[in-house]
Design a protein that fits this description.
Blueprint: E1 2-5, E2 8-10, H1 21-32, E3 36-38, E4 47-52, E5 56-62, E6 71-76, E7 79-84, E8 107-113, E9 117-125, E10 128-135
Antiparallel strand pairs: 1-2, 3-8, 4-5, 5-10, 6-7, 7-8, 9-10
Amino acid sequence: MCRFRKGHTMHSHSTVQIPTLSHTLHSMLAAMGNGIDFAADNKYPPHNISCEGEDEFFIEMAIAGFSPEDIDISIEGRTLTVAGVAAKPSTPAQRIFLHRGLAQRDFRRTYRIGEYIVVRGAEIRNGILSVHLVREVPEEAKARKIEIRSVV
């Protein structure tokens, strides 16, 4: 389960009707504190942010036509950046598109990530880039119970 707001949980298979999904998702992620939040409000390429359990997150981006060589993923401080440079078209110059619905342009998306969030890896499958993130809290930063001794 993902915790989005104090006292509320959302199961990964639940469907929630929300009037303004983008705004609400942005608010929920910001409320997580140690999760993932948008650092920019652009709409290309379309993406999903999901979680499995409380410490495993996935960013999925629709990037049909891009290869791994066209994508750069980097972290600086607490900012995760995913950027893509569209490959030069290999189609003949005389090709005329009657409809061009598959956008293939350069992009740059940034996300603010919480403390202890690390990128475990990334892969492209069927035109979807999936970035796997995990929260790895060091033992010294985890909550712990202090034993109280009785002194006579």
